[in-house]
Every structure is written in structure tokens, then in C-alpha cells.
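User: I've been trying to design a sequence by hand for this structure and keep getting stuck. Would you show me what you'd pick, starting by listing the structure so we're on the same page?

Assistant: Good idea, let's start from the same input. This is the structure you sent:
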């Protein structure tokens, strides 16, 4: 076997397919772009959906990439199998309606066996095919694979529901029986079985059918090839490693972990090795994911990160590492991946900071989790049978991040088993919840062929022009058909040239009209989008007949466009100002540029303070007042990067990119429209700042006239306040408000003391009227108080004074009546109960109530009955 490093192997794969006419696509962000159906990019093809379902036609139908991928469903496999990680790189070659089986099969064989490339021995390789795919089997044979090495397997059909699907071929490498975990005569001991001997390295999918919504399959108009080979698995074969982990991709991480551990050494103890592998895997996954803008949180992607970091922490503890350590592995990962992913080292301080703070946080819950575990163990021991409940194990797993195995181990030390079925049942429930929350995970649309074959060119001239005379109408689509003319309804149009901007990069589509040569409006443009081959496709309301081949005048609504452009320029200023004020880690996470306002989402793990926002606003306005010119160039990606332009990390760019510069202040990759000079913006004002989700903040802002109106409206409110405060000087409003508040406070104090006085006065009046009934003294009076509290106060005074045996007070507040009854200790001894009394009299005021023997309250809605109620209380004593 050749001695090759992982970097060399990755490069050789890309070079091989470059020689076969493929364009090398960069490894796209792990965070899917414009694809809400996927949590993470989980394969090479996941980044190419738009090509495979026909929304976009690629410049070159042959593509190749080494794509970073995350598969959360493999988390539990990590460290247990030789071949799984959560983060891995998938090498792939893709044909979008171009070559098919006849080329894909021999090329795969050539790459793996040719002495110039991987130079694997042919008899080490096994191929699986779908039984009905006779053609694939035939081609493998013709390519030189021995029939005994070609295995038919029903599972070899790639189908993810609606969208492209088809048979596939998997390639296995026979590592020899010494690598196996099952016996030679085990039924699983074959390529494709559950074993460690035959390693699946490559999967080649021949996507040739459309899986239709009704469940039927029809041949695809354009057949595709989609392949995936795990780089780590290939490297493990080339480097003769026992598992993916004993390769140059992981060993440096494992060695760095050994140094931090309690004198643990890799390769000595099976359990320790699992921990080393989990840590090595998880450190890579979280480093890359955070580098791509994800952040730990309680949901979605963020939760995956949290889980990975927690698992790694627990495994660290097993190796005797009791403090945050994962973050220290970030530069180690960065160094290993430097040749293909230089951005990791560049961002390593930021990534480490995020991981460290998450580790700190978990170290707190870890202690709590262990406490809970001890408590549960004590409880379980007292029960028969002595088993730790599944619910407890699940809580430990779910809330405190304790993997089940760890709980089992801890419980085992105490002589306890854990209810695994109960745990699994809880787990299943949670998975069902998660599944219900996630929309379908397939997400490729059914190919619609209509515009795929439309290759006519359409030039966008809207960066410098707002109208175009004599544009030729090249394509008309009406009622899902390409037609030569249209007279009414809605239609989609492509012209040879157009000033209309198609929605992209957050900037909304232009609006406007289309006129004929006589100056009559023949169509109103309601939307503009990119057709699969990149042309600007105008959706219009047809007002008068339109004919293919005729000339028309295209007129963009100037006022609309101007407002949008100002806001787009402001968005770039904001992007840069955020980096200046909050730090270089800020990444754009979404943007909307409309005529009336702009919205900008960005990654930032903390709050944004009012002072920071003020500073951002200040910087942007300074740039506006400095009247900076805006210019743009179209150049190649490398030169653009050399210029220092900010690229959207989630975006894929073609060969040529446009770079927009605002003076020396901002440079960004961008296809949008802008002001010519920042002075046109006039004014910039932030109107709102909120958090939208895990680690994402959102700013909304306005410019120009909208900013003026925003401020003006506020000034009017202030004017109104001034008028109400009887001042003509706006600047005195705050002190006037403070003064008013002070006055109000003083007045309230006076009211309170006057009320107290008057209550005392009333009390002495009220308590004079003592009646004697059957040897019991009673005071039953209507009083004037403002709330229930005062009524209770009066009852307390009565108690202090021991004014009678029984007290009944009633008061009317608004439309309601409140009653209070109290009985003295002597009265209680004589068998009287305030609760009984109030129950007897409350119906008179249309209410009910109750209470203790010494004190009871009631409320009612009939003030007219109050006197009757008071009278009823004396009758109550008469018995
Ligand atoms: P396996 O059965 O081994 O999990 P798979 O059938 O899930 O593999 P595919 O979906 O066909 O794999 O992905 C294509 C290739 O990607 C595989 O042949 C393998 O080389 C690689 N691969 C898939 N999952 C992982 C993983 N978790 N870690 C490393 N490599 C992987
Ligand atoms: Mg798998």
C-alpha cells in the first residue's frame, strides 16, 4: 500500500475527477442554505439538491467535492464501530444529467485500483448491486471485477421518498478476518453484513427514476450520478488502521487528550479507548459546526452541539479530566485540517471561547446530575425489585446529558440494574416528538423539465440601468407551457436583456411595467426570480397581447428600486459596523432588503447592549455623512478574497464574483443594487433589536425618508407630552415628568394618612353603636372605606378595643358589596362562628363567603341588600 496522508488522498480524489472533466466544488457550510428540511448537511448530494431537482442548471454538469457532513443518527455508533463518526468528509462525484453508469463504474474502479491512484488489490474489493439492475452488474464485469466479487442485494436501492431515486452499488474493502468481530461462519460475515471485516467505502447511486407523490416511479428526464465515499474510511484502508481513528486525521487529537488525562494511554483499555474516540470525534464535529455559525442551545442544531459537548465532557471525566478541556483541542483540529480548511485555525479563538463557556456550564449541571443519580440510587435500593427506573435514567440522559451507559455503569457499581426497556420507551417517545417537529427529511422536489432546457441568454443590466428600450421577448410561459404569445392572465417572461432585479441575497425583486413600442403598458411585473439556467424570469399580469420576438420597453419602478438600493447599501455598512463593534466572529445569518426597511440577522452569543447599538448607529451615520463612493468590480474568487472582501460563508459562488466596495470601509461579495454614494442614505436609524433563536440576533433599521419619519413621529409624541405637561420647551419634559411623579408620590402619602385618620374617626363612631341581643353584644354597621384592606383594618381595631362580642361591617365599593364578620374569643366560647354568620347573611347581598370562627369575609353584587344583611346578623343572634 502507498504511504499517503489524508490531505494527499483528498486531493488525489479531487484531481482524479478533475481530470475527468469535473469542476471542484468547495466544501459547503454544514448549516444548510435555504433548506429548512435538513438540520445538517449530511452528504455531498445534500448541497446539490438545487441541481438535482432542476431548480438550477450548473455551469458544468460534472461536479466533485469533499463535503464535510454531520450525521446525528451515528452519534451512538462513535467509538463502538470502526467506521462511524458524527462529522466526516464525503468524497463524491456527481453527474447532473450528463454521464451515467457506463462512465461512473469504470472510473470508480480506476481510482481505487490503478497504481497511479489508490492502487488497491482488485481481489480485496467486493461490489454489491441491486438484483434488477442487470446493466450495472454487466458493466462491473466488463470493468474487470470477478463475478464472485459481485453480490446481489435487495437493499441497494436509494430512495428517500418523493424526488429522484434509483439503484446503487456499494464498494467494500475486505480488511481480512483478523479485523473481524464475528466468526468466519457467522451469517453476518459477508460484504454488507454487520461486521468489521468488509468495510463499505463507497456508494454509487444511479438516480434514474422520479419517485412521484402518488408512490409510482417514472424514468427521469435527466439521469444523475451521485456518489459518496467516506474520506476517513478510505484513509483507514490506505494507512492500514484498525479503525478510522488510528489515522493522521485523529491520532494528534487522541495524543493531545492523553496529555490532559490522568495518565491514561490510548490502546491499553477498551473502555478508555471508546472515551478517547468519542472525544476525538466530538471535538472535530463541534469545532467545524461552530466555525460554520452554529451555536450550542436547547433546540435543533444547537441541541446537537450541546449533546456532543456534554458527552465529550462525561468521557473526559472517565479519563480523569475534571475541568474544561475540549476547547483546548480546537487548535489541534485546526492544524490537522489546515490544508483544506484554513478557516478553522483562523477562527480558533472564537470557536474555543464558545466551547469553553458551554463546558463551564455543563460542569455545573454535571455535579447536579451526579447528585440526582445518587438520590435515585438510594430510592431504588429501598424498593423491590431494586432497579433504577427508566424515567430516572432518561431524565439523567435528557436533562443532564448522561449517556445511558454511564448511568448503567454507576448503578452497576452500587449493585443495581437499570430499567432499560423503560428508558427506551421514554427515548422512543422523545424521538417521536422530535420526528413530529422535524418536517420530512427528504426535500428534493419532483423534476419539472419545462425551463430546464431553456438556454437562451438573458443579460442583467440593472446595476446601472433602470429601463431598457427594445428588449426582445425571448420566452413566454403561460399555463405551464412555452407559448408564442399571450393575451391575458399571468405569464412568465424572459428577455434578451433586462434591468429588473431578480430576488437574491435578501434583496426583493424589482417592480415595474412593460410597455410596447407605442408606449402602452402591456404587462405589470409582480415578481422576478432566477430560472434554472440563471435567466431573470419575470412574472407579470398581462394587460395587452405579448408576442415572442417583439421588442418592448422594460421600466423598473424608480422610487421602489431607489429605496431598496439605499437599504442594501445600509445593510453592508451594518455588517461591517457590527464586526467593528461586536467582534470579527459576527456572521450574517439572514438578510431582507425591502423598500421600507431592512432586516439583518447575525450570529452573536451575547446580548447587544444599548451602548453597542448606539455605537453601531453612530459609525454608520458617520460613513453616510462622509459621502463615501460605492463601486463594484467583477473578478475571480481568488482575487476577490485577496481584496479582503467578506464572503457569505453559507453561499456557493460561481467562477466570477462581484465585489461591492463602499469607500475603504466595506467590501463584500454581492450581486445586489446599491446607492452610488453613501450620502444618498441621508440617515440611518435602528428601529429594533431582538434575539430570534439560539445565538442569533436580529436588527431592523430604516434609512433616508423612513428614518426621518421614524424620528419625526417620535418627536410628535414628545410634543404631545410637552403640551400635556404645559411646557413649550421639549428639553424640560423629562424633569417635568420627574417633578410630576414626586408630586404624585407626596399626594398619595397625604391621602394615605388622611384615610388612616378618617378610618380611626369612623372606628370610634362605628364602635359606639353596640346592641345587646340575647346577652351577646354586636356592632353591625355600614362604613365608608376604599378597599378590603381598610375593612380588615377596622376589624383589627375592633379586636384591639374588644368593643363587642360580634362585629359585622359592610361597605359598598363601586357596584360591589364587601362584608366582614368577626367574633371575640368570648363569643366563640359561647358557640358563635364568624363563618356561619357570614354564610347566613351573604345571600342578602347576592353573594357567598366563609372563613374561620374568629373572622370571615364575603362579597356580593347587590348593594341594595346591604342594610338587610346587617339586620339579618342581629336576627342570626336571636336564633
Ligand atoms: P454505513 O452503513 O456504514 O453507516 P451508509 O450506508 O450510511 O454507511 P451512505 O449513506 O451510503 O453510508 O454514505 C456514503 C459513504 O459515506 C459511505 O460509504 C461511507 O464511506 C461514508 N459514511 C457514511 N456514514 C458515515 C459515518 N457516520 N462516518 C464516516 N463515514 C461515513
Ligand atoms: Mg449509515
Amino acid at each position: 500500500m502507498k504511504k499517503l496522508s489524508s490531505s494527499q488522498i483528498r486531493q488525489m480524489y479531487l484531481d482524479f475527477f478533475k481530470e475527468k472533466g469535473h469542476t471542484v466544488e468547495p466544501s459547503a457550510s454544514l448549516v444548510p442554505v435555504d433548506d429548512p428540511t435538513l438540520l445538517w448537511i449530511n452528504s455531498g448530494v445534500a448541497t446539490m439538491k438545487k441541481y438535482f431537482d432542476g431548480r438550477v442548471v450548473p455551469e458544468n454538469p460534472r461536479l466533485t467535492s469533499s463535503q464535510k457532513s454531520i450525521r446525528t443518527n451515528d452519534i451512538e455508533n462513535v467509538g463502538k464501530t470502526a467506521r462511524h463518526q458524527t462529522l466526516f468528509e464525503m468524497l463524491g462525484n456527481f453527474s447532473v444529467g450528463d454521464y451515467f453508469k457506463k462512465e461512473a463504474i469504470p472510473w470508480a474502479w480506476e481510482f481505487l485500483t490503478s497504481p497511479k491512484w489508490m492502487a488497491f488489490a482488485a481481489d480485496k474489493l467486493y461490489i454489491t448491486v441491486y438484483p434488477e439492475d442487470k446493466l450495472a452488474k454487466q458493466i462491473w464485469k466488463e470493468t474487470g471485477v470477478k463475478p464472485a466479487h459481485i453480490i446481489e442485494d435487495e437493499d441497494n436501492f436509494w430512495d428517500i421518498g418523493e424526488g429522484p431515486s434509483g439503484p446503487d452499488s456499494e464498494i467494500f474493502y475486505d480488511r481480512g478476518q483478523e479485523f473481524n468481530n464475528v466468526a468466519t461462519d457467522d451469517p453476518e460475515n459477508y460484504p454488507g453484513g454487520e461486521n468489521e471485516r468488509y468495510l463499505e467505502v463507497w456508494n454509487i447511486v444511479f438516480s434514474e427514476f422520479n419517485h412521484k407523490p402518488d408512490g409510482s416511479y417514472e424514468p427521469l428526464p435527466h439521469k444523475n450520478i451521485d456518489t459518496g465515499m467516506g474520506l476517513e474510511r478510505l484513509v483507514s484502508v490506505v494507512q492500514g488502521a484498525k479503525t478510522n481513528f488510528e489515522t493522521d486525521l485523529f491520532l494528534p487529537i487522541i495524543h493531545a487528550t492523553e496529555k490532559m488525562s490522568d495518565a491514561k494511554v490510548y490502546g491499553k483499555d477498551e473502555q478508555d479507548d471508546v472515551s478517547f474516540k468519542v472525544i476525538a470525534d466530538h471535538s472535530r464535529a463541534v469545532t467545524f459546526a461552530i466555525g460554520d455559525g452554529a451555536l450550542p442551545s436547547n433546540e435543533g442544531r444547537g441541541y446537537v452541539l450541546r449533546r456532543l459537548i456534554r458527552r465529550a465532557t462525561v468521557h473526559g471525566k472517565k479519563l480523569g479530566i475534571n475541568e474544561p478541556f475540549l476547547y483546548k483541542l480546537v487548535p489541534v483540529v485546526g492544524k490537522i485540517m489546515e490544508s483544506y480548511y484554513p478557516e478553522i485555525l483562523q477562527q480558533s479563538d472564537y470557536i474555543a471561547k464558545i466551547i469553553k463557556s458551554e463546558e463551564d456550564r455543563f460542569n455545573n449541571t454535571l455535579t447536579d446530575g451526579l447528585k440526582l443519580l445518587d438520590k435515585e440510587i438510594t430510592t431504588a435500593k429501598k424498593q423491590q425489585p431494586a432497579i433504577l427506573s427508566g424515567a430516572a435514567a432518561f431524565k439523567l440522559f435528557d436533562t443532564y446529558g448522561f449517556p445511558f451507559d454511564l448511568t448503567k455503569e454507576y448503578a452497576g457499581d452500587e449493585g443495581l440494574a437499570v430499567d432499560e426497556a423503560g428508558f427506551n420507551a421514554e427515548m422512543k417517545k422523545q424521538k417521536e416528538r422530535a420526528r413530529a417537529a422535524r418536517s420530512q427529511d427528504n426535500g428534493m422536489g419532483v423534476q419539472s423539465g419545462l425551463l430546464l432546457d431553456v438556454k437562451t441568454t438573458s443579460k442583467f443590466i440593472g446595476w446601472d440601468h433602470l429601463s431598457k428600450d427594445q428588449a426582445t421577448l425571448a420566452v413566454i410561459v403561460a399555463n405551464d407551457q412555452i407559448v408564442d404569445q399571450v393575451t391575458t392572465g399571468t405569464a412568465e417572461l424572459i428577455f434578451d436583456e433586462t434591468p429588473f432585479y431578480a430576488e437574491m441575497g435578501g434583496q426583493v425583486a424589482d417592480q415595474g411595467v412593460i410597455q410596447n413600442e407605442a408606449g402602452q403598458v402591456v404587462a405589470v411585473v409582480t415578481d422576478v426570480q432566477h430560472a434554472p439556467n440563471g435567466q431573470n424570469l419575470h412574472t407579470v399580469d398581462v394587460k395587452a397581447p405579448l408576442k415572442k420576438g417583439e421588442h418592448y420597453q422594460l421600466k423598473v419602478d424608480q422610487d421602489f428600486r431607489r429605496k431598496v438600493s439605499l437599504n442594501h447599501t445600509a445593510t453592508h455598512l451594518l455588517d461591517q459596523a457590527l464586526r467593528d463593534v461586536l467582534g470579527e466572529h459576527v456572521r450574517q445569518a439572514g438578510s431582507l432588503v425591502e423598500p421600507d426597511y431592512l432586516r439583518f440577522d447575525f450570529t452573536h452569543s451575547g446580548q447587544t447592549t444599548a451602548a453597542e447599538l448606539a455605537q453601531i448607529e453612530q459609525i454608520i451615520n458617520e460613513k453616510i455623512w462622509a459621502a463615501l463612493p460605492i463601486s463594484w468590480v467583477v473578478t475571480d474568487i481568488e482575487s476577490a478574497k485577496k481584496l479582503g472582501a467578506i464572503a457569505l460563508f453559507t453561499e456557493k459562488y460561481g467562477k466570477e464574483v462581484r465585489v461591492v466596495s463602499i469607500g475603504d470601509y466595506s467590501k463584500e461579495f454581492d450581486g445586489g443594487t446599491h446607492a452610488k454614494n453613501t450620502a444618498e442614505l441621508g440617515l440611518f436609524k435602528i428601529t429594533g433589536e431582538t434575539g430570534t433563536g439560539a445565538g442569533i440576533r436580529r436588527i431592523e433599521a430604516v434609512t433616508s425618508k423612513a428614518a426621518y419619519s421614524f424620528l419625526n413621529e417620535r418627536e410628535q409624541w414628545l410634543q404631545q407630552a410637552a403640551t400635556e405637561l404645559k411646557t413649550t420647551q421639549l428639553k424640560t419634559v423629562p424633569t417635568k415628568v420627574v417633578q410630576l411623579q414626586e408630586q404624585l408620590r407626596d399626594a398619595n402619602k397625604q391621602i394615605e394618612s388622611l384615610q388612616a385618620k378618617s378610618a380611626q374617626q369612623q372606628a370610634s363612631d362605628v364602635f359606639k353603636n353596640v346592641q345587646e341581643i340575647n346577652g351577646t353584644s354586636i356592632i353591625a354597621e355600614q362604613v365608608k372605606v376604599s378597599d378590603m384592606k381598610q375593612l380588615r383594618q377596622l376589624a383589627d381595631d375592633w379586636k384591639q378595643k374588644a368593643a363587642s362580642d360580634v362585629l359585622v361591617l359592610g361597605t359598598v365599593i363601586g357596584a360591589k358589596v364587601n362584608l366582614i364578620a368577626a367574633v371575640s374569643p368570648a363569643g366563640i366560647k359561647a358557640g358563635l362562628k364568624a363563618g356561619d354568620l357570614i354564610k347566613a347573611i351573604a345571600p342578602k347581598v347576592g353573594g357567598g363567603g366563609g372563613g374561620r370562627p374568629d373572622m370571615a369575609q364575603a362579597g356580593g353584587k347587590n348593594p341594595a341588600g346591604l342594610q338587610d344583611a346587617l339586620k339579618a346578623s342581629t336576627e342570626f343572634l336571636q336564633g
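That's my pick for every position. To get oriented when you compare it with your attempt: The two ends are 110 Å apart (CA to CA). The first helix runs from residue 6 to 19.
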